[in-house]
Amino acid sequence: MLDVTVIRKDFPILSRKVNGKPLVYLDNAATSQTPQQVIDVIVNYYSNYNANIHRGVHTLSQEATDKYEEARKKIQTHFNAEKAHEIIFTSGTTHSINLVANGFASLLKSDDEVIVSALEHHSNIVPWQMLCEKTGATLKVIPMNEKGELVMSDYANLLSNKTKLVFVNHISNALGVINPIEDIIEKAHKVGAAVLVDGAQACPHIKPNVQQLDVDFYVASAHKMCGPTGVGMLYGKEKWLNKLPPYQGGGEMIAEVTFEKTTYADLPHKFEAGTPNICGGIAFGAAIDYMNAIGFDNIATYENELLAYATKKLLDIEGLRIYGNSKHKTSVISFNIGNVHPYDIGSIVDKLGVAVRTGHHCAQPIMDFYKIPGTVRASFAFYNTFEEVDVFVDAVKKASQMLT
Amino acid sequence: MHKIKTTVTIKDIQNDIIEEFSMFDDWMQRYEYMIELGKSLPLIDDQYKTDENIIKGCQSKVWVHAEMKDDKVVFTADSDAIITKGIIAILIRVFSNQTPKAIIEADTGFIDDIGLKEHLSPTRANGLVSMIKQIKMYAIAYQTQLN
């Protein structure tokens, strides 16, 4: 069981006011808040052992290097990667995806095909479009149904021996629907295609096991799981990471440099050119510790209760429609009221202290599917309360009264 | 001899609006007023709601059309979000039917005074900041034609 009163004390930001009202933060799918335990790690880093890593012989550099590599191991353990060097530190999910897309540019041929899902964030569409433009490969799309689920029979038909890569998010950021990635991975492997899963939205809610999933690449951002912004990770199977060429040239990623030839460093340094976000990486590790101490089973149980409660209360509002009605969902509710524009609802609930996201959520193809300009999206975290759901629903009711 | 005032200046209109808004006690009344403005006004002829006239924000869409009548620029505009449309109604009231020179020289600081500053933040991405830029661009273009 999870004690939300105790947990909330860990998050200083949750006690601030917005527009004179207590903050009700329901934009967790955009970024999560940071607990004191993680803030302390950041302060401690800059107060005590800030130094550049991997090259220094002095004590501070050694301490920083140890902590940074310790964080890599924490991430390895959390995602159950076989080897620590299969974890590459990046600046976030988008960077991780671009690193893989860039690497595949040298592996794809013009008659190859890549498959992406209709539920993707723009960051998991655009790099692949660029990749296809560069290589002449064809981009195919797994369609979605009215409930916001992928049409798996169509996916099976898209796969062939031409398919080299499949990209899909674990959980849709716009709708919160959990995709059947086990099935997607298994089918892709049967035709010899590699699979990249974008776990940005999944990692705040569930603990992925990359070996059990047998996924080829898995990517995530720290800032969605109680860590800082500007740091994330790429998991890649060793055999794939060895096949991909380096993404950026620079310090740290080399073994030997002469003007005639440079040989690259071994994994993971081959993909970590330049000075990394050292403090961010260490804090990422601390965030993972924090979430594991609460426990992902406890988090899932509690968030599902919040989701069910909020869904039921919202549906009592006349004209309110929820997008993404799959049974397999995380604590995200994307909705509209009649023809009211989401911007108008978002503006009014903000005045009442409630932070929600409005707009197309960087997933325009989904909005086009439903023929809407966007939605209001409330996304709940384990530190939100049932009382906050009440405040949020009342704010939406008020907005609805004013606007309809 | 004192000069007879023949036109209402942008500053006069802005002051009128500030005075009107000062009657409201709280944000809710201000928003209700803007929603009313947004609902009641037909702001643009449908023929001008074209892709060419569209300003795409991440949030709401804004259409702006401009034409020259006598020596004044007449603006019409619209939005798919009602609060954005209410603010457009205010902006049109300020900038439309003014000379290009007056529009170029005008500022939009009055928006702060009426408590709607957050809607004119570039990060809000509702199309309003781009709309003001567009209004100024039209004024500059017409001014160039006059010179």
TrEMBL record, chain A:
It comes from the Bacteria. CDD domains: SufS_like. Keywords: Pyridoxal phosphate, Transferase. One of its GO terms (molecular function) is pyridoxal phosphate binding. Its EC number is 2.8.1.7. Belongs to the class-V pyridoxal-phosphate-dependent aminotransferase family. Csd subfamily. This is Cysteine desulfurase. The lineage of its organism: Bacteria, Pseudomonadati, Bacteroidota, Flavobacteriia, Flavobacteriales.
